[in-house]
Specification:
Elements lengths: L4 H20 L13 H9 L2 E3 L4 H15 L10 E5 L3 E9 L5 E16 L5 E14 L4 H32 L4
Parallel strand pairs: 1-2
Antiparallel strand pairs: 2-4, 3-4, 4-5
Length: 177
């Protein structure tokens, strides 16, 4: 069945107009070039943040993930901003308990407070509480359970790093400096 010529023209017009809707609502990509170079500026700003040490083993892992995400061309020499994180708070909650009082699933909740500080003035520019929740199966083998718990913890730490990067990117994209 062939579409009438008039309907086909209206359909094409609607498609063209729909393509311009994201631009009309003020949408612009945080990481893309987007015509204004905003994405390059955000990436450049992230690479100029000094990441302070974070206590404990989980903190060291999170710091290494952040370093990998922020410093794509090497660490900053004279960073204008400093990122500090509070010690990571971890809580475990048993989710699925059998009639014999055995746990078969556990939830891990990681939480930290993030602060971006301007080094020249000592002024705190941004503070956020970041939280990540994940879970893992408690298996019959203690070794297998430990491996799944550590994998879930690393995934939660990677999610914390992603959220921190997103918060800082949005801060810089909005013109915060």
């Amino acid at each position: 069945m062939k579409m009438p010529v008039f309907s086909a023209r209206i359909f094409r017009l609607v498609l063209v107009l729909a393509a311009f809707l994201p631009a009309a609502c003020g949408f612009h990509p945080v990481y893309g070039t987007g015509g204004s170079g905003a994405g390059q500026a955000v990436g450049g700003d992230l690479s100029r943040i000094e990441i302070g040490p974070i206590p404990d083993h989980s903190g060291q892992i999170l710091r290494n993930i952040l370093i990998d995400r922020f410093y794509r061309t090497g660490r900053p020499v004279d960073a204008p901003w400093s990122l500090s994180l509070s010690p990571i708070q971890e809580s475990l909650t048993d989710l699925d308990i059998t009639r014999d009082s055995d746990t078969t699933r556990t939830q891990i909740r990681l939480r930290t407070d993030v602060a971006l500080t301007e080094k020249a003035t000592g002024k705190t520019l941004l503070t956020r509480r970041i939280e990540s929740v994940t879970s893992y199966n408690v298996l019959g083998s203690e070794f297998a359970t430990r491996v799944t718990r550590e994998d879930a913890r690393r995934n939660a730490l990677a999610d914390l790093a992603r959220q921190i990067e997103q918060e800082l990117s949005l801060y810089f994209a909005r013109g915060g400096t």
